[in-house]
Amino acid sequence: MLDVLRERLKQKKRTSTYPGKPVQLPERFRGRPQVDLNLCTSFECSACEKVCPTGAITCQNHRPSIDLGKCLFCLECTQACPSKAISFSNDYRLATSERSDLVISADANYELKKAKALKKEMLRLYGRSLKLRQISAAGCNACEADTNVLGTLFFDLSRFGIQIVASPRHADGILVTGPVSKNMEVALRKTYEAVPGPRIVIATGACAISGGIFSGHEETNCGLDSIIPVDLYIPGCPPHPMTILDGLLRLLSQKTN
Amino acid sequence: MIFKTKLSQIQQLPLGALKNELVKNEKRLSALFFHPADRYLYVVCSDDEKGELSLFKTPIETHRYQSLTPSYPAAHMFEREILETHQIVPEDHPWPKPVRFIKDLIGDTNFYRIGGSESHEVAVGPVHAGVIEPGHFRFQCHGETVYHLEISLGYQYRGIETKLIGGPSLRTLHYMETLAGDTSIGHTWAYCKNVESLSNIVVGERETLLRAIMLELERLANHTGDMGALAGDVGYLPTLSYCGRIRGDYLNMSAFICGSRFGRGMLKPGGVAFDLSVDQIKELELRLDKVFRDTKGAINVLWHSNMVLNRLEGTGMITPKEARDLGFVGMVARASGLKLDIRKNFDHGNLYRDLPMALCDTGDVFARAQLRWLEMKNSYTFIKNALEKLKNTAPLETIKPGQLENDTLTVSLVEGWRGEICHVAITNSDGLFSTYKVIDPSFHNWTALALSLRNQEISDFPLCNKSFNLSYCGHDL
To answer: Which of A36, B152, B335, B440 lies 20 to 30 angstroms, CA to CA, from B277?
Structure first.
């Protein structure tokens, strides 16, 4: 017993001070991508579009736009760009309410339309207590792992009134990961229908938003919103736990950073 | 481990001789698959003592052949897979059921049942109670005792192997990173080795060290998470709480090196995408020491609790014979005393010369937990040594792979945190993949979970399950 107490003292309190203080993410973390218009020569180039594995980049009007819903945050475009015009910032706040808001244009003044709070009545119901059922529908276990980690002591999701629950009957909404394989479609629909309304639906990760790397596969769907309506899109492959947390807090109109 | 041969040089054996080779010489099966382009069964056998691979091919002329499984049970999943994917029937296979429900309606199969008015059946999944991938479990019970567990997967089937044919393409590397998202480094390294071997590239020492560091960080993160979860499943909260957090510390070290907590983007054929400066190496050393001190404390309190040990000991047994006969790999095999670790048995480059092989022999949940802890200590020492070596190696020199050799087969083995990852690539006359076969350790080991539950109480299922922590998507692909 004494060694348990001794260990408890040694391990100290490690819960994050977020949202009081901003979190420090690793220097090499790849957050919101950005295009430097002064460097981009897409008029004759479109090298980034050609190497993107998911077709997230389109060079329209001679300017690349990036669809965060498809982006894997890999290094292909940054390495292919001859003028090094594409880079990743450290900004992890990427969640949006609309699918179309995830498309980043190369306009210098462009700002990502971050997720909006729920409507008034929904906010009254769920603003201070939200129970979610997680459904992995062909997720590779990276999105799942970085969702699960929100429950650990560092993030301590329950201090925001948010909990992952073990039955759809106990839930106010679902958080879905993966492109929704055809083999999971029925189970997903049944779980969704088992959640009492009004329900919240959250698509987490590139796969759940657009099919991601599996888009175009006949064995999977191309994202969750082709099956059920989605309230919150959290991009990434996988999204950083802070990206997920930030999205959830914005949805509930709680303090973020 | 990498092995390369021209397709024409692979020894051809008739089916009977192949069976003899497997049974009499007690070969361990790393891969068995059908290659439709030339209608051969390809067989990859590992000799773990000698550190050698042997390859055979057997012509399949019709849509049927005599199953190997009755005399060589380790082939059972491979033969089911061949039946499902290519409709080639292994005659007299005792259990010819779908593996991934590629064509059949998911879950529509004749589950094994025990009769009698006092027995009952418990069905769990596909959607599970936690944040976990989907799969279906059927327990045949009498009271609290489980007599049989049948595991039916396929919910994660994404059709990756079909899409790998004709590659490498823009997507190939990213498919590798998501075959099993918690094993991104293991699978990507196996792929890189294949491409490098097929394009005759040798990567430098620094690249190899950085890859090996990432692989051991992946092992540390996953083992730490599992130790916490095992503690949670027996209701021992201190270790659960600390390990949940510490796992994140290891993931953050991967992100420190390459920006991704899962090592995405770090490995590419020909090298690695990120280097470490001397200052970064020092920073990483400091962090590793600090985090490992916490890990040690968090796990040692677990061993000091008699109640925890009582729950772990004797639960979920896998005997060495079962492990050998059914071809279990990795942690599961080593926890039952089998000396099976690709890093040691096939260490041709001497990268792992100073790494001891962790072994336990009781084959229960306790052994699988203790083995994890032994491996974590080894991984820590390995990373420390590798970081030290990194200070004196020549700078990175990433080479871009060119055209792949045609009509060639390569096998690459990597000891991922769960066990043996085996990738087999076959190129066609244009140097493109005509088959790219992936065998995740979970493909072998799911059967071990089913066996470990026999005669256990059903309440021990979560504990047994976590002691294996197998991949659903790595199995379903």
So the answer is: A36
* Residue A105 in domain: no
Task: Chain B: give the shortest CA distance to residue A197, in Å.
Answer: 20
A130 and A72 in a common domain: no
Residue A111 lies in a domain: no
Radius of gyration for chain B, computed over Cα atoms and rounded to the nearest angstrom: 22
At residue A108, the pLDDT reads: 63
Mean pLDDT of chain B: 94
The answer to whether residue A225 is domain-embedded is yes
What is the model's pLDDT at position A205?
A: 96
Relative orientation angle of helices B184-198 and B205-233, to the nearest 10 degrees:
150
> At what angle are helices B205-233 and B365-390 packed, to 10 degrees?
150
SS3 of residue B52 by DSSP: strand
Are A80 and A128 found together in one domain?
no
Q: Is the dihedral of CA A23, A27, A30, A35 positive or negative?
A: positive
Q: Hey, where are the domains in chain B?
A: 2-91
**Backbone dihedral angles phi then psi of residue B73, each to the nearest 5 degrees:** -60, -25
Mind telling me how many Å the CA of A143 is from chain B's nearest CA? Answer: 8
Q: Which residues contact A35 (CB under 8 A, 6 or more apart)?
A: A63, A64, A66, A85, A86, A104, A106
Choose the mutation target among B124, B127, B184, B417 for the interface with A, i.e. most A CBs under 10 Å: B127
Q: What is the mean pLDDT of residues A186-206?
A: 96
In a domain, A27, yes or no: no
Cβ–Cβ contact A123 with B under 8 A: no
Closest CA to B164 of B206, B202, B195: B195
B470 close contact with A: CB closer than 8 A: no
CB distance B261–A146 less than 8 Å? yes
Amino acid at A175: L
Quick one: fold of B2-91? Answer: Beta Polymerase; domain 2 (3.30.460)
pLDDT reading at B471 higher than 90: yes
Among A92, A111, A128, identify where a domain stops: A92
Question: Is pLDDT of B33 > 90?
Answer: yes
